Amino acid sequence: MGDHFDTTIVTPVDDDPRLGVTDLFAFPKPGDPDTSVLILCVSPEEPKAGMGFHPEGVYQINVDLDGDAVTDLAYSVTFSPADGGMQTATVRRATGEPARSREASGEVVVEGAPVSMGPDPAISESGPYRFFAGIRSDPFFADYDGFVNDMQFTGADYFAGKNVLGIVLEVPNTDLGSGAVGIWARANVHKGQETLQVDRIGGPGTNIGFNQGEDMQAYNLLEPTEDVDHAFDKFVSVLVQRSGYSEEEAKGIVGQILPDLLHYDHAQPAGFPNGRRLEDDVIDGAVALFSQGQITSDKTGPHDDYLTDLPYLGPPN
Description:
By secondary structure, the protein is of the alpha+beta class. The chain has helices at 7-10, 144-148, 173-176, 206-210, 214-220, 227-243, 247-257, 282-290; strands at residues 21-28, 35-42, 57-64, 73-79, 88-95, 107-114, 124-126, 129-137, 163-172, 181-191, 194-201, 262-264.
């Protein structure tokens, strides 16, 4: 599943779904070859009225610009406490060493942006950046019950009619350079004197596809630079034992999955595995992978409420 069901089970520091990452998307802005759209969705449980985003959270979209899995660029979003249901957001952009911090650092590129907790989206603009944050329709689609029932799919979309909290940022492609980049996102939270990583996502469904229970918690606390050392052998074993791949085949597949990043080149045709659009059917690919092509679809398809402009995510249900 996107990344919906790992944090509600294993969040180590706060039983708060607002810190749970659900999905990450990256795609060119329709009709604008100079701009890309980055979307981070959180809150795998239905967002509660008036709560908004976690005021002690630091929501980050991180970019590796040179292929070494180390973050070179980070957009960090923080939120004011919800006051009578009203909340504002600040977006910072950091490069180099400051970009690797779990704290929000770098220059402020959007400030005082209103959070939309109703159906009407508030769009903020600042220089080359456009921004939205608020409650929206969950864009993800999958037959989750069929997936956990030994891939006995009925086409029942578990996520239809549900909502998430969405963070949407339009960025100039000059930020992303030329060629392929690796994108990952995480939710951090301030706890006492520390800022702790709670959840993360790169490629869709990697954690829940390969891990269970405490392994999901441990995986959530890693950064992409740690993935190969900590998860490569485990992922190979899963493909060998669960799906019947040879060890050599499994190593080749896992070598493409880890480090766990969403790969994106804004100059190339859009669509997963080059970035990820809202309508991309990533679950069909996962089903085919784990079944060695014996099953090719979970029988669900994209939702019909996606928008062609910011915030791209459909209105809340």
